[in-house]
Amino acid sequence: MMSVKEYAEDINREVSEVLNKCFELDIDVKNEDDMLDDEAITMLDNSFDEISEELENEEIEEEVALEESSMKAVKADKKKPAKLPKKVDSKKSLAQKKKAMYKSKEKLQSNAPVRNENVVLYKENMTIAELAEAMGVAASEIIKKLFSLGLMVNINSVISFENAEIIVLDYGKELKKEETANVANFEEFEVVDKEEDLVPRPPVVTIMGHVDHGKTTLLDAIRKTNVAEGEAGGITQAISAYQVKYNDKLITFIDTPGHAAFTEMRARGASITDIVIIIVAADDGVMPQTREAIDHAKAAGVPIIVAINKMDKPGANPDKVMNDMAEAGLMPEEWGGDIIFTKLSAVTGEGIGELLENILLIAEVNNYRANPNRYAMGTVVESKLDKHVGPIVTVLVQNGTLRLGDPIVVGTAFGKIRTLRNDKGEEITKALPSQPVEITGLNEVPSAGDRFMTFATEKEAKNIASERKEQARARENKAKSAVSLDDLFAKIGEGLKEINVIIKADVNGSAEAVKNSLQKIEVDGVKINVIRSSVGGITESDIVLAKASNAIIIGFNVRPSKGIQDKAKDEGVEIRFYNIIYKAVEEMEAAMKGMLDPEYEEKILGTADIRQIFKFSKVGNIAGCSVSDGVIKRDAQARIIRDGVVIYDGKIGSLQREKDSVKEVKKGYECGITIDGFNDIKIGDTIEAYEMVEVKR
What we know:
Blueprint: E1 2-3, H1 4-10, H2 15-24, E2 35-36, H3 38-76, H4 90-103, E3 119-122, H5 128-135, H6 139-148, H7 161-170, E4 174-177, H8 181-184, E5 199-200, E6 204-209, H9 215-223, E7 240-246, E8 249-255, H10 263-271, E9 275-281, H11 288-300, E10 304-309, H12 318-327, E11 340-343, H13 352-366, E12 369-370, E13 377-386, E14 390-399, E15 402-403, E16 407-410, E17 413-421, E18 430-431, E19 436-442, E20 451-454, H14 458-478, H15 488-491, E21 497-505, H16 508-519, E22 526-535, H17 540-549, E23 551-556, H18 562-571, E24 575-578, H19 581-595, E25 599-616, E26 620-633, E27 637-642, E28 645-657, E29 660-661, E30 664-666, E31 670-675, E32 686-695
Parallel strand pairs: 3-4, 6-8, 6-9, 9-10, 10-11, 21-22, 21-23, 23-24
Antiparallel strand pairs: 1-2, 5-12, 7-8, 13-14, 13-20, 14-19, 15-18, 16-17, 16-20, 17-19, 25-26, 25-32, 26-30, 26-31, 27-28, 27-32, 28-29, 28-31
Helix pairs in contact: 1-2, 3-4, 10-11, 10-17, 11-17, 16-19, 17-18
């Protein structure tokens, strides 16, 4: 934090200039001694950077104008020695591009959820002109209607919600207050694009597999660069994203580390990919981390390509690899399955072209498309803090166009994009769908896997980020498990319900027995999905997978270390321990039954015949009844039967015995009954009281 005066001195500006800018950005400061927090400083930095950039652009424009006039003078006087125009350097060319982009910064489509056409959104201090635009009617029509209500207004007058509601209802529509919360939860809504706005986008491909099986070497061969040599121990240390061109078509690759310590990063990669390549060394075969990669790829629910690498090695045995992969649930196409297998050598280049062709084939079949004409949405691939630059974030644009200067919310961070660099490190002015880029300008470092979205104004971005921060704080305070047997019903939506399970056992026989027993549980509408079943202790990889797939871990005759237990607790993953199979089956079956929507059946409580009608102006009609069967209870459901036909179904309002209000009246006694919402009772009608009782499964 620093004062306004200190900040002004730091950026070499007048205090009055800073205070004016604070007023524009809605930063709550009044004088030079007021303190600026980190968010305010970031907003001011971004704003003053933009001003500086505009000044720079003006200088460039003047230079270009001078060059043009110079060229004209040369043409006019050929006798004079020609002066060569001043060369504009690359930095200035970029600045020119920036200026052109800012000038042509067209209004992009909003990412807010599409609402019902019959719903009109009311925003605070809405004018009649704005209401008319939202309704799609002439403002003069609204003014005439308001005149008839005795209101003297004009097109710029602010209309209250109550008056706006009257107008809207007159057009057969509904008025609702605009809520930023809908936009703040942008992870939760699906953007719906018009068919004509969609264009093809490059597929996003993740490469997974066991350490030293050749992932980075394969990318190295594809990109024609030498990444592996510059990395510590030849092992990839961070997620990286690259774009390559093959047959004039772009493909985006996400390189994930293969070492066991980086399983969590691999899970992040699988969550944002279109296609997963699982690379297996032909001379080594399927290894433990290969199986982990298979689990993550299956959990991602995307097409899988198996790349059998190191075909140049003397001990290469592709048939064994194919057999092991088939046993793991990835059946090759040539064996009647649906998984493409490609044999290659990253060293010699053999089969790489075929691999890229298969990627493009899958992309063509799946028709990956996006809308570049809306505000950008995407995911953080990696992030870091640079003490000189601030947060540096690598993001993948998944829809829309990301532009220099766009206000952006990333997780709970916000800011204005100050720089935009492509995977080659080049400064650019915009990024299209499926393009990985590096950005700066945020007020804090987001986490890998955080979603981002850009907005029309910096103020809107700040408000959304503030709302998201409050939501995150509330979630932390609840500190609930990601999934547990006790609250599965609350966490599973409508439709087919699943319990994702990871099984870890002491021996393979136990793992298989537990898996088979759980999968045999039959409860209509609910099923168990075993996403991993393996031998050995519970590891960090299991916790990461359980977190990513909302799964429960079942440990059979195994106990995790304290570090793993702490990790599970931090991530909200439930671990259940058993040493008897039927106990696991019993608990799981009970949970599955609890997940089903409850079933109810009707239970008749009693009937009463109406003998008299008592009319009261304040209460309405009271039925004087004789209970002919069972019992009549206050607040029970009741239907009115007349000549064998049900004419009303509602609820018993009041129940009286003589002058006293009572809870119930039994058979053989007389009572007074009122029915909520129904007054048309007649002598001879029958009141049948009933309740809905949950049926045990």
